[in-house]
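User: Second chain of the day. Same drill as before.
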Amino acid sequence: MSLRAIRRAVALGLALALCVLRFWLGRLRGPYTLERRALWLQQAARGILAGLGIHYRVEGRPPTHGLVVSNHLSYLDILILSAAMRCFFVAKAEIRGWPYFGKAARTGGTIFIDRSSLASAERVSAIIAERLELPVPVLFFPEGTSTDGSSLLRFHSRLFEPAIVAGAPVTAAAVRYVLEDGVEERELCWFGDAAFLPHLWKALGAAGFTAEVQFGEPRVYPDRRAAADETHAEITAMREAGVLALQ
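Assistant: Same format as last time:
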């Protein structure tokens, strides 16, 4: 059994308990608006990363409104992107029922979608349209699932539509993990049919690594397919440039 994993598991438990305490202390200052929920999520993510000793680096300017789209490698992406900026996530409906993390997601203002349901997609699009009026961006993963990072899946375009209709800016974000001793990024990715808890234990026991998130420039697109294709190309280019920089 890895001593590193045990230490980090204890640190994670303490960090999660502190997140709950901060939330209830925040209730003393009044009801939580959506903006305050996004801020709580950001503070929680930063506290968890600090407790686990996970370093992250941000390139580019984090957006303050509009839509953000990112590649998806792991549940760790949520922590990294939350720490980098205040935002509302769009997440698969299954997460709603996860112990602790489901409640934390709901508390942070996450929008849940059943990707197999057209009615759910339409409902989520309507919620995104409302959130785009707030000074907090909405973030979703247009691949629809997490991958091993070897390539990006084709982006689904439906959830770009609210930004197109509103003329809101769309920002591309690329997430990457750099592990020590030349270990491949895929060793930290959570993809396929990998079970959550065994993978979490593996991640807690991993040697040091740095998470990187790079933001592109916000752009307004004429239609949702153009937005999906162009942000896909932009994220691919940012990730490839990051790999070349390490060589």
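The chain has eight helices and seven strands.

User: Great, on to the next one.
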